[in-house]
């Protein structure tokens, strides 16, 4: 781990400046939501507590005290023990990777695009990324999550010290209440103003592996079909099969070879990175004995680590693209 990271004494603490209204809303999340929906707040806590590398002023609001305190204590313990992986580092790297690729994709479209975040959770990019100032953003998630997000923002307006943090940076933001396991999710996107003929960046961050296989493949196929109509970029993270063992109740879809799968659906250009690769490192994985660096040194076909037999749990960061004039190359899956 990079020695320039703060130690356990100096790790940035969460602010926890909550109004009573915000506290009550988070109590509802803790009491009424299942673990899949709550993962949206856990992800926000990761962004909040890695604020020295991820700039997200709204992350603490969406995380809630429970998840902030829990992760903060884990981080302190990891830094005290000189752990090779500090809690939350994957979330930090994943966030930075998606935002870097998103900015590059929008720039390639001339600075304007449609950006669709499926399973958006407590994402805040529409409020903080300058690269989206000419883009229309669509967020889709469970009705309870989208409603709670709006309600938290309204409750924060009265207590937040910097109202500018609640100002939209994107050209527009549309929230769509839909369960991606339902077949009508794309219809709801169209009814909300999405235009299939416009250049689009699709973001599937921390979501695809929660879906059953048939639904996940349906979502990927729908996105791939857009390549026939307009310039399309997909940014997504995929678990390999072994990673689904981390939570057999929540994780379902996997792909050991997403860079081989996506071209069969219609994408012409696919690039895959693993945590710790040059474009997915950000100075946070220098230690050669770090778990992710050790995994990168093994063939991707290796299912269990030869040293101790533990499952090789990999997270793949994938960028895929296509356009109506593309030529699709279909690699073998050996």
TrEMBL record:
Keyword Membrane in annotation: no
InterPro entries according to UniProt: Ppm1/Ppm2/Tcmp, SAM-dependent_MTases_sf, SAM_mthyl_Trfase_ML2640-like
Keyword Cytoplasm included in the entry's annotation: no
Keywords: Methyltransferase, Transferase
Signal peptide: none
A Gene Ontology molecular function term of the record: methyltransferase activity
Pfam families hit by this protein: LCM
GO aspect biological process, one term: methylation
Family that this chain belongs to: Belongs to the UPF0677 family.
Name of the protein this chain belongs to: S-adenosyl-L-methionine-dependent methyltransferase
Species in which this protein is naturally found: Tagetes erecta
């Amino acid at each position: 781990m990079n020695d320039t990271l703060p130690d356990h004494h100096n790790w940035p603490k969460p602010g926890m400046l909550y109004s009573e209204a915000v506290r009550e809303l988070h109590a509802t999340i803790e009491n009424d939501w299942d673990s899949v929906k709550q993962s949206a707040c856990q992800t926000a806590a990761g962004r909040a507590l890695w604020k020295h590398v991820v700039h997200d002023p709204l992350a603490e609001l969406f995380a809630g005290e429970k998840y902030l305190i829990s992760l903060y204590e884990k981080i302190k313990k990891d830094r005290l023990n000189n752990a090779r992986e500090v809690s939350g580092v994957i979330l930090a790297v994943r966030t930075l990777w998606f935002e870097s690729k998103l900015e590059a994709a929008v720039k390639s479209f001339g600075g304007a695009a449609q950006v669709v975040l499926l399973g958006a959770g407590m994402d805040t990019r529409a409020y903080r990324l300058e690269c989206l100032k000419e883009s229309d953003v669509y967020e889709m998630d469970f009705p309870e999550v989208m409603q709670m997000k709006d309600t938290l923002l309204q409750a924060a307006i009265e207590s937040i010290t910097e109202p500018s943090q609640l100002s939209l940076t994107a050209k527009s933001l549309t929230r769509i209440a839909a369960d991606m396991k339902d077949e009508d999710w794309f219809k709801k996107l169209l009814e909300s103003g999405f235009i299939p003929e416009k250049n689009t960046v699709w973001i599937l961050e921390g979501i695809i592996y929660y879906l059953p296989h048939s639904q996940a493949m349906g979502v990927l196929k729908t996105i791939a079909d857009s390549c026939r109509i307009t310039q399309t970029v997909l940014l997504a993270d995929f678990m390999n099969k072994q990673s689904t063992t981390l939570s057999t109740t929540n994780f379902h879809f996997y792909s050991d070879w997403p860079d081989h799968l996506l071209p069969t659906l219609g994408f012409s250009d696919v690039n895959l990175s693993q945590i710790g690769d040059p474009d997915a490192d950000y100075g946070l994985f220098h230690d050669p004995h770090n778990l992710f660096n050790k995994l990168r040194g093994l063939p991707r076909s290796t299912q269990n680590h030869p040293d101790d037999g533990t499952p090789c749990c990999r997270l793949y960061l994938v960028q895929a693209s296509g356009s109506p004039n593309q030529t699709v190359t279909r690699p073998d899956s050996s």
